[in-house]
Amino acid sequence: MKELVIRSNEAGQRFDKYLKKYLKKAPESFIYKMLRKKNIVLNKKKADGSERLEIGDRVKLFLSEDTIEKFSDDAVRTETLSLQFPKDGGVFFEPEILYEDSHVVFFNKPSGILSQKAVRTDVSMAEYVVLYLLKSGQINEEGLRAFRPSVCNRLDRNTTGIIAAGKTLSGLQELSELFRNRTLRKYYLCIVKGAVGEQAHVKGFIKKDRAANKVSILPEKEDEECMPIETEYIPVSYNRKTTLLKVHLITGRTHQIRAHLASLGHPVAGDYKYGDRRFNKEYKEKYQITAQLLHAYKLQMPKLSGALGGISEKTVTAKLPSVFWKVVEETAWEHGIQEAFGVLH
Fold first, then answer.
1. pLDDT tens digit string along 236-289?
2. Residue 299: C-alpha distances to residues 250, 342, 345 (Å)
3. CB 72 within 8 A of CB 25
4. What's the pTM value of the predicted model, to 2 decimals?
5. Is 236 exposed, middle or buried (0-12, 13-18, 19+ CB in 10 A)?
6. What distances in angstroms separate CA 48 from CA 33, 45, 64, 320, 331, one per listed residue?
7. What's the CA gap between 163 and 142, in Å, rounded?
């Protein structure tokens, strides 16, 4: 027999969904049979699986240890993964925590790290979230069988800045919904080629070439694979060759900022997929940059309640990486110098 106590991480979900995660390899028929025969009970009572779990609920599995292990998914092995990610120059560090409460946590993601893994062997921010919570004692390996905390937004591998994650089921669901329905406001900073002197709100359509992992920006919808996009940008500082832009990402499609700005003649510095080769070479030689100067620096939250009440109407900001900051400091801006440092501070 095994007894499980429901924590905040698992609360809020249907009992049968919880069991299907905990006994991930078991057929559904087995789970419902065990419920009918009272080999699995909730709070010492027979259950049919439709019950909503609450913090403190007790689940008893009148099953052998061998059966439980047979049907359980492998737990995360903390000893096989490192909590440290590489920084420029080979120095290692842990991503900075920007905000944390009992339901959510926000990190400042470094360049070179995926938001979610592309192949099984990757270690991404999604794995880092789990490892951080394990090491801080906020979850345990047993609990991961029924609920796995994860990230709620994605940044490209070499884009830096804010990654948001749900620590509990309700936190993950509600925060993910905020990103889906665009009720929060997402702001980025980037350095682009050319002088951009005026604010603009631009629209278009984006089409993905999955084989090349690249997108195209189109003025009109050509087929059902084309998705509408909206990007708003505000020049913060600029000279004749370069502009520091603040970008309000409205729709948030794959590679949207990089591809959209490049299609307008203002590619992001250091972007080797959509950028300008000569422009990138100049920045690489002068500042040794190896990735795009694009940083997710601010999230503005709407009025919220429930699991997200702690971040209601808050603004989360992430400081610039050192190489980005160095470029800003050493660039001879001709317009908006004070505005630049006002935004960055």
1. 999 999 999 999 999 989 999 999 999 999 999 999 999 999 999 999 999 999
2. 12, 17, 15
3. yes
4. 0.85
5. buried
6. 10, 10, 21, 52, 66
7. 25
